[in-house]
Give the backbone structure.
Amino acid sequence: MASRPSNDLGPRGITTNVIAAGHVAGTGFFRGAMTDERHDNLVRETHTKRAGTPEDIAATVYFLASPGAGQLTGQTVHVNGGAFTTR
């Protein structure tokens, strides 16, 4: 069985996580193809009723790199305003 990064790196104090971002306004992700209607639909899907910001993602990265997240590893962190929740 192949080893996983979190298994190999965890004992060395290195955590491995993924940020799954939702719609983040102002990033150019849609390369000019974002219509007002699509933007409104994506915002409507969120619980926060707003698009994400680069600062939202940066704050999550900052937390994941902090000592406070030292026991958080091998996870996918959804930063999407609740548009897609896990069970």
About this structure: Strands lie at 17-21, 75-79. The longest helix spans residues 54-64.
